[in-house]
Design goal:
about 50% strand; mainly beta; six-stranded antiparallel beta sheet; single chain
C-alpha cells in the first residue's frame, strides 16, 4: 500500500483527482446499467488509477437493511464504457471544475461493458429506524489499482441507498 506522503507528493505533482456526484443519487446494485458513481479507466489510457479513497454520504435513511460497497469490473475489457451522465472531476491542484481532468472518467450514470462484481463492503445499516446516516469511508490507500479497461463503482446490496458519492485517485504511468 502507498503512504500518505506518497499521495501528498502525487497531489503536489498534479497527478491526483477527485470526482463527486453533483447531487444525491440512487446507487445501483450489480448491473451494467450503473447509477451512483462509477470510475472507469479507458482501454488504451496507458495509466493505472491508484484508488486513494471512496466515500458515500447517505442523504436518506434506507427502507431496510442496506450494504454499500465497491464493485469492480469482472475482467479487463477493450469495450468502452458509455458515459451517460459525467461527474465533475477536479485535479487536486484546484484550478477549477473539469480543468486538467486526467484520463480517468467518472459518471453518475453509465453503461458498463459487463455487470460488475462485489469487491468489498464499505458500510451497512440494519434498518431505517436505527440510523443517523454518517459518512461511509473506504481508505483504500492504493490497495485497489485500476488498469486500462476496468472500472470501480459504488453499489448497494439488499435495499437501495441514496446519497452523495466521491472517489479520489492518482494516475500513474503503466509499467
Amino acid at each position: 500500500m502507498f503512504s500518505s506522503e506518497w499521495f501528498l507528493e502525487q497531489a503536489r505533482l498534479g497527478n491526483m483527482y477527485h470526482a463527486c456526484t453533483t447531487n444525491a443519487v440512487t446507487l445501483s446494485t450489480l448491473s451494467a446499467t450503473c447509477t451512483g458513481l462509477v470510475l472507469s479507466n479507458p482501454w488504451g489510457s496507458r495509466k493505472k488509477l491508484v484508488i486513494a479513497q471512496a466515500r458515500f454520504a447517505p442523504s436518506t435513511a434506507p427502507a431496510g437493511a442496506a450494504v454499500v460497497g465497491l464493485a469492480i469490473s469482472p475482467a479487463v475489457s477493450e469495450t468502452a464504457v458509455t458515459h451517460t451522465a459525467a461527474a465533475v472531476i477536479h485535479n487536486a491542484i484546484c484550478t477549477g471544475s473539469n480543468v486538467d481532468t486526467g484520463l480517468g472518467k467518472a459518471d453518475s450514470s453509465a453503461t458498463l461493458p459487463a455487470a460488475p462484481v462485489w469487491l468489498r463492503p464499505i458500510s451497512s445499516v440494519v434498518a431505517a429506524s436505527s440510523i443517523s446516516p454518517g459518512m461511509y469511508v473506504d481508505e483504500t490507500n492504493g490497495a485497489i489499482i485500476l488498469p486500462p479497461g476496468t472500472n470501480l463503482s459504488l453499489s448497494y446490496l439488499t435495499t437501495a441507498a441514496v446519497g452523495v458519492g466521491s472517489m479520489t485517485w492518482v494516475e500513474i504511468d503503466e509499467t
